[in-house]
């Protein structure tokens, strides 16, 4: 029984430690300025031990991205199988908000390092996912204002995570819930009027 994406627990643990430390360093000093050697030093392992799991820092970043964004792919699959009701759209927003929250360190890093990401094809994947989510939220023949509301609902969740976290210095979970409430209001408004 061998599954390529499920490493043995011990290896998975090391792999995850590498990912966590690398993401911390990428966030602290930028992706470009971080070397594999620094990641190995921070982990207190040899470069060879690090190399066993990842050959390049690009591999590390892509693995972090794939692991932390898998829930969004699963959400898109789920959304595509549901009837396009208001309740489905509300649930999509709730789950998307939770997925953003779980991957918060990655999404903040991505927001601050957009230039690096453009070269790594990760940017393309993010864009494609967003377009797909927008399609799941909007009603194709709805008035333009309602289509804008649907897109805005999605970006309200992003704003809650990226921008509003710094405003009040408040509780990130409260901010997330407030953004989710506004997003759900927008979807409900769009749904009732179309």
Quick one: how many beta strands?
A: 0
Could you name the ranges where pLDDT drops below 50 across 5 or more consecutive residues? 1-11
Q: Helical residue percent? A: over 70%
The tally of domains stands at 2
Write a brief caption for the model.
This protein has 194 residues and is mainly α.
What does this structure look like?
It is a single chain. Helix 5 runs parallel beside helix 9 (144-162) and helix 5 packs antiparallel against helix 10 (172-193). This protein has helices spanning 9-29, 36-43, 47-53, 57-81, 86-102, 104-112, 114-118, 122-137, 144-162, 172-193. The protein is built from 10 helices and no strands. It starts with 8 loop residues before the first helix and ends with a helix. The longest helix has 25 residues, at 57-81.
Supply the key terms.
Tetracycline Repressor, domain 2; 10 helices; mainly alpha; 2 domains; disordered N terminus; 194 residues
Ordered list of secondary-structure elements with their pairings:
Layout (H helix, E strand, L loop, with lengths): L8 H21 L6 H8 L3 H7 L3 H25 L4 H17 L1 H9 L1 H5 L3 H16 L6 H19 L9 H22 L1
